[in-house]
Specification:
Helices cover 40% and strands 16% of the residues. Strand 4, helix 4 and strand 5 form a beta-alpha-beta unit. It contains 10 helices and 13 strands. 46% of the residues are buried. Strands 3-2-1-4-5-6-11 form a 7-stranded parallel beta sheet, sandwiched between helices. By secondary structure, it is an alpha/beta fold. Bound molecules: NADP nicotinamide-adenine-dinucleotide phosphate and ligand F7E. The site of ligand F7E has 22 residues, from helix 6.
């Protein structure tokens, strides 16, 4: 019999990549979508799987909705990817961010405990939980010190996942994922904002890109590689918490330089400006993950390097706009 997976956040960036991987492994995949008057399946369509995933309307902030779905499906694996995931919006939307990112996972964990305790659970945790707690590399033992309402909300869900594991022996794991991107990344995130902007400049549709803090440094990987680590966590005998990262750090200047290079445009500095509108009340200056545990225990390895990732995104944005 096919294994059953339930994926929340199915229409975001990671949901389609994970669903594609699960379908290739012959799972029956159910995906949760909020109710929309105009549902947008573009990201599922991009990967050609919109007809292969069974979509269920629901909301992780609605405990009745989660109870009903989990009680009926009793999935082998549950991946909670749904979130208000844009850090920049989390100051103005701090209550919504908390309801979705903290109470949403709590609803799912309570449903699993009550209705399907043998389901394995994946919680989408994040490097934002570290804040500026150390200036070097972050691993599973680095202190958490979040600096955004998003980071704070995700830290609650992280500890609840650990708590349900320890209190009720659930197979519940946290993936502490560092930034990961793709051609279906939301356009407000900095990498896609840059690759979309570069494509527009290349095609003569725009003449500049306006960003916020140009000094931030991040560890950027490819979403298609990172979803494999999610799946591997739920195949382990024992649940656990894992950093998933490339271990390589880059600046926003590096993203810009490589994106403009792949578009064949010289002197990138002349096309870029900074506007305080895009700056945040509190910033994370430098993140770089240490994925040693995931590499050793899960056998996970990223396949796509930074240059290849940015090239993929620029080429796709140019092709889309042509
Ligand atoms: P994403 O593109 O923003 O996708 C999240 C999805 O969740 C969206 O489709 C969103 O729908 C949906 N959603 C929001 N509120 C919901 C609710 N109340 N009930 C049901 N669905 C809801 O994020 P992503 O990049 O795929 O990331 C997946 C997960 O990993 C998120 O939890 C994110 O916080 C976490 N994470 C991401 C990264 C990264 O670099 N991408 C790194 C670490 C952790 P709408 O857009 O329509 O609201
Ligand atoms: O910002 C700076 C910005 O919004 C990266 C989410 O997936 O990864 C993501 O969060 C950096 C920040 O991603 C602009 O200030 C400069 O320092 O692309 P971002 P993020 O905040 O790191 C983590 C791991 C998650 O969990 C989140 O869900 O770039 N930056 N200028 C800018 N950022 C944006 N968005 N726009 C700018 O114009």
């Amino acid at each position: 019999m096919k294994k059953v997976a339930f994926v929340t956040g199915i229409a975001g960036q990671d949901g389609p990549y994970l669903a594609k991987l699960l379908l290739e492994k012959d799972y029956k995949v159910y995906g949760l979508m909020k109710r929309y008057s105009n549902p947008n399946l573009t990201n599922l369509e991009f990967l050609g799987i919109e007809k292969d995933v069974e979509l269920i309307t629901g909301d992780i902030t609605d405990d009745g909705s989660m109870n009903h779905i989990i009680k009926n499906l009793k999935p082998n694996e549950i991946y909670n990817l749904a979130a208000q995931s844009f850090v920049g919006a989390s100051w103005d939307l701090n209550k919504l961010t908390t309801e979705v990112n903290s109470l949403g996972p709590l609803n799912i964990l309570n449903s699993i405990k009550m209705h399907s305790p043998s389901s394995k659970y994946y919680q989408a945790s994040t490097s934002e939980m570290y804040g500026n707690s150390n200036g070097g590399r972050q691993d599973e033992s680095t202190t958490f010190k979040p600096r955004s309402p998003y980071g704070v909300s995700k830290l609650y869900a992280y500890w609840m996942t650990v708590n349900f594991r320890e209190s009720y022996s659930l197979h519940a794991s946290n993936g502490i994922l560092f930034n990961h991107e793709s051609p279906i990344r939301g356009k407000e995130f900095v990498t896609r904002k840059i690759t979309d902007g570069v494509a527009r400049i290349k095609l003569g549709l725009e003449d500049k890109i306006t960003l916020g803090n140009l000094d931030a440094k991040r560890d950027w990987g490819f979403a298609g590689d990172f979803v494999e680590a999610m799946w591997l966590m739920l195949q382990q005998e024992e649940p656990g918490d894992y950093v998933v990262a490339t271990g390589e750090q880059h600046s926003i200047g590096d993203v810009l330089r490589i994106a403009f290079k792949h578009a064949g445009i010289e002197n990138w500095e002349s096309y870029v400006s900074s506007d305080p509108r895009f700056k945040r009340p509190a910033e994370l200056h430098s993140l770089c993950g240490d994925p040693t545990k995931a590499e050793k225990i899960l056998g996970w390895q990223r396949k796509t390097d930074f240059d290849g990732l940015i090239k993929l995104m620029v080429e796709e944005d140019i092709a889309r706009l042509k």
